[in-house]
Write a structure and sequence with these properties.
The chain contains seven helices and three strands, in the order αααααβαββα. By secondary structure, it is mostly helical. It has one domain. The chain has a three-stranded antiparallel beta sheet. The protein starts with a helix and ends with a helix. Iron/sulfur cluster (SF4) binds next to helix 4.
Amino acid sequence: MAVEQARDRGARRPLPFRPRISAALAYALHAVLAANPVYRWLAAFVERRPRLYRWFTAGERVTKERLFGCRMCGQCALPATGYACPMTCPKQLRNGPCGGVSPDGACEVDRSLRCVWVTAWDRAESAGRGADLDLLQRPVDNRQWSRSSWVNYWQGRDEGIAVAFTGSDPRPAIAVRASR
Ligand code: SF4
């Protein structure tokens, strides 16, 4: 696990990635995978068996790398970002773009690429989910790198991963939790 974490966190340079499926399809797939008691049981079953957990995580890695450029941070923000992975931002910003986005939406680090947050905005808006981008994402827990975000989500470890920010009173993001 330590080797995988080092690879996921360091060796693979994050670059803005354009999801390979539409936002509408991604939200529909998420509805199928939404947490319920059966998935929670399945996640616990998988997690108790190290070999099975490795296979399961490998399957998640292949699937999400190809579809979303996933870097396996283990705490998936996709449902709140129009399914554009914020960990593919070269600065790994999880709460919106830096100040360097060009007027045409290009990334400051690589002008040939579109800022992942511009992509997130377009996709969330197109699905009527633009308000999700107002949510405040909590900092990444670096211990979760290379672990299965699906297992973490089904096990309820993502509770409060995004909160609604109203002045000085961040509250649990009920809307996000209910729809993930
Ligand atoms: S698990 Fe983390 S790195 Fe992977 S798609 Fe979700 S936010 Fe991105």
